[in-house]
Every structure is written in structure tokens, then in C-alpha cells.
Amino acid sequence: MPAPATEVDDLRLDIARACRILAHEGLAAGVLGHVSVRIGEDRILMRCRGPREQGLLFTTPDDVRELPLSATATATDGYSPPNELPLHTEVLRHRPAVTAVVHAHPPAVVAAGLAGVELRPVLGAFNIPATRLAADGIPTYPRGVLIRTAALAEEMLAAMGDRPVCLLRAHGIVTTGESVAQAIARALQIDELARMCLDVARCGGKPADIPAEDLAELPDLGGAFNDGLTWTHHLARLRHAGADVQQ
Ligand SMILES: [Zn+2]
Description:
The chain is an alpha+beta fold. It is built from 8 helices and 7 strands; from the N terminus they run αβββαβααβαββααα.
């Protein structure tokens, strides 16, 4: 069932804000990075590049275009889907439970990968969702290529396995979610884990994983806290910085 028009407009706004959050938090400085959402059996919303392109921090709902899931990266209405459109469409095609896909280039994650610093469950209660993600495994796609074909996206999906996130060596990250908020929260969690692991590595530290009994003691704070409150907080940060979408 296709999403009603008002819901599509709300999702356009969500995607624009998600792109601004990625840029504002340093996960997608400049013009690279994108967010997509499934809105029907064969329809998606995709952050494209339009005639007034100024980078992710300045994304507007107009930059978010509706495309068929089978779309190729050719321009329509003056807006071009990103070259890495197949990264989004193949994830959405192969993962029916996924609603939203985020792709960004967080420098800390890329640096950690190149430095051989693994993202392990070392943090504990400092960041419980990040610890849980790492405990269940954060896979890496080992090629630093632009994922601009279905074949490369399928290769990336094979590396991703059944996990909701994947690191792309020398490139960035892919995160998925049942909502834009969840996919964004996962991107922020991975970024925070990478920043911390890099800081520790710079100090010469080689932290052990937290003990299994401590991991078992960490509560699942739930989606309303992990995703909903993270989203609300980052929207407030955008507003405070004068960087929210003008309506
Ligand atoms: Zn990329």
C-alpha cells in the first residue's frame, strides 16, 4: 500500500532533517551522504541533488524525490539520484523489514578502519545501544569502491549478512532501521563508538570487551529512548544552531 500524501510530505521533511543531522554531527561533511525511505511496494523517497545543491547541511524537502525501487541513477526534473542509489535500492529490495537506509562518510569510522581499530563492545553503559550493536557484531565490507551497481551492492549485502549496519572500509557506513530515527540513531552510535575507540587507541590503550556478565546487566532501553529521544535531541540541536529546515 502506498503511503498517503501527507505521510509522504512528513517523510520528506524527516529525510531532509536526517541529512542535516548527519552533516551537523560531522558524519557527512560536504555534499556526500544520503538517506532513503520505503513508501510503498515499489516506491522510495531518496535524497537527490538538485539545481540548488549546497551540501547535506542545507537539504530541503524539495531535494527528497520519489522514485521507483527499480530506479537507476539518471536525472529527472532537474534532480539527480546519487551514484550510490543501488546501495539503497538493493538493501530495500533484499530486506523487506527495512524502511530506512542511511549512508554517510564519518571520518572517525573510516580512520578506525584504516588504523585497524576494531569496533568492539568495550563501552558498557557509556553508550548501551552502541555496545549492543558491537556485541552482536559490526561487519565490514572490505572494498573501498563507490557502490554504484547492483552487483557491488549485493557484494556489500553479503558482507552485511543479517546485521542492521555495515562498515565500508576506506569509505563510510550503511545503517538501516524500521524508521529514519532508528537508522540515524544507529549511525550516531557507531560514530560515537569509533571516536572513543580511536581516542583510546591514540593513548596506547587496548581495551578488552566488557565482561559477559556486565553486558547481560545492561538494559535494553527501548526504541522510544534509544531512537525517539535521540531524534528529538538532535532536532533540538539543529534548531538551536539555526540549522533546521525553514518551514
Ligand atoms: Zn559513499
